Amino acid sequence: MTGAVVAVLAVVAGLVALDRLGEGDVLLRQRCTASVGAESFELTPTQTRNAALIAGVAVRRGLPARAASIALATAIQESRLENIDYGDDAGPDSRGLFQQRPSQGWGTEEQIMSPLYATGAFYDALVRIPDYQALPITEAAQRVQRSAFPAAYADHEPEGRAFASALTGNSPAALDCTLRRPSRSGDAVAVSASADEVFGPLGGVPDGNRLVLDVDGTLGWAVAQWAVANADAQQIISVSYSGLEWLRADGGWTTAATEPATLTITVADLPG
User: Fold this and answer.
1) What top-level branch of life does the organism fall under (predicted)?
2) Closest alpha carbon to 188 in 202, 172, 173, 174
3) Which residue in 25, 39, 46, 50 has a CA-CA distance of 20 to 30 Å to 159?
């Protein structure tokens, strides 16, 4: 038996051992996909969590999905939806999801590094643009950002629209995340607090490792898919709403018995 074959067999044996220990998915590439119509786009869990915040703030403010599309296309171009703490040669003091600059009046560095603040500041500027909804996404984004590369926003219009449609609840069950098994127990109270921070008070009732919310319609789907987007960070293992359920272990949405206008988010409850 050659050395190469021995090495391959050793790797396979190691992966089998990991799987038996419940750690076989350590090599799984985590990702989230928004599928709207015939188009599908993929982001990392961290990017998707930031996208869900951006879309959720639009929902909270009563803004149309178009506003979220513009904001998401902008953030994808400016930071790849990462809350980065550095700028570039064109804007060395640029920070955060939208690469906003303290020197340009966007706020302090500390404020801009808060995704919630940065998103609110972006929408504050966007809604001051007359008829922004009728503008091409790249033009609306440029009027807010005043970028040195205004055409670049157009590159991200399709994925911005797809994630906006899913995360504002306009496309039900359109977001799926492929994730590793939870590494620790979750906290339903913390999930409730995080959801309230984005959407405003939702009146969620934590019950053990479950959070139950009375929501319906588009808002219900926005919160449900926000929960899927936050499943990795919040150790969420299932989300059920409107006759469908997302299971972390399986991925995808499947039919399930659910109470009308009731959203249930379940977090991991691991021993020890």
Assistant:
1) Bacteria
2) 202
3) 25
